[in-house]
Amino acid sequence: MTRLASPLSLPLPLFVRQHIDSGFHRLVHPPDEPVVDFNRPRGEAALVPPESLSWRIFKNPVALFVGGVAAVILELAEPAVRTGVWEHSSFRTDPVRRLQRTGNAAMVTVFAARSTAEAMIASIVRRHDRIAGETPDGEAYRANDVRVLCWVQATAAFGFATAYDRYVRPLARDELDSFYAEGVPAAHLYGALDAPASDAERQALFESMRLRLEPSPIVFEFLAIMRDAPAVPAPLRPMQRRLVRAAVEITPQWARRRLGLTGAYGLRPGERLVVQQIASLSDKLMLHSSPAVQSCLRLGLPADYLYPG
Question: Is the pLDDT of residue 8 over 50?
């Protein structure tokens, strides 16, 4: 494989880098659950290859946090998803643990050995098989409904790609198409059989959902939780509220209007540059315990394979 680049030496004290590293490790490894060893089995490929855009995007913790919050905003705007998430998850009672589990699932899906990822996805599908009910308006829903799964897959991919595009570096149209296509095999394993394979397909799906999305106090409750929960490593904690506003900022304007997310929920003047600086820094900061680095080592690649020079 061709090495992408050599790492940039960052002027951060060692203890700061170690603090960020340990904080990120805690965020993607939920307590009381088996720790996934991304360094094993040696040589086993992931669902997507290391030269993919997915590996570059998912290695960036700021893009993941911002993109993940934007995705959940759009998911909570859909009645069936909102009811399933709010009634069958621990977002309200233990939001950090819920975020840890979600972050861990994303890391395993992208970086872990294929056998590890497939086993985890199968277990999630089995758990989702037990989740069903009715929305407050009496509409039946199932967590494993293909339409619901496709919306969750599309909003997650949109959130991560758009956060990276806005705050790390701009992505060309062909890169966006590649990113959506890279996620299709995993999406199919989850049951999202109609997940968009290009940005045009993603746009078409979003257009079809315009009238389906609706405002809800739960969206604002979620944003309040995300502003204050210890959801990022401690060194980034002073930035957390800005990162939540950065997530609102990348939510499509039509969706923001429909949900009542006024300009007050987005970035303040000058904050975009600050978010871009932090996101760019995090793109160059190699965390040795990160799934990205450990997975590179599993495949016999240099630890700094994904880091620009």
Answer: no
Q: Which positions ≥6 away from 84 have C-beta within 8 Å?
A: 131, 133, 141, 143, 148
Does some domain include residue 3? no
Is 95 among the domain residues?
A: yes
User: Can the peptide bond before residue 136 be classed as cis, meaning omega within 30 degrees of 0?
Assistant: no
Dig out the tokens for 179 from the structure.
């990113």
- Domain span at residue 159 reads 14-298
Kindly state the tokens that stand for 110: 């992208």
pTM for this predicted structure: 0.91
pLDDT in tens, 85-132: 888 877 777 777 777 788 889 999 999 999 999 999 999 999 999 999
What HEC string does the chain produce?
CCCCCCCCCCCCCHHHHHHHHHHHHHHHCCCCCCCCCCCCCCCCCCCCCCCCHHHHHHCCHHHHHHHHHHHHHHHHCCHHHHHHHHHHCCCCCCHHHHHHHHHHHHHHHHHCCHHHHHHHHHHHHHHHCCCEEECCCCCEEECCCHHHHHHHHHHHHHHHHHHHHHHCCCCCHHHHHHHHHHCHHHHHHHCCCCCCCCHHHHHHHHHHCCCCCCCCHHHHHHHHHHHHCCCCCHHHHHHHHHHHHHHHHHCCHHHHHHHCCCHHHCCCCCHHHHHHHHHHHHHHCCCCCCHHHHHHHHCCCCCCCCCCC
Q: For residue 258, is it within any domain?
A: yes
Whether 303 is in a domain gets the answer no
Beta bridge partners of 134: 140
Number of domains in the chain: 1
Q: How far apart are CA 283 and CA 131, in angstroms?
A: 37
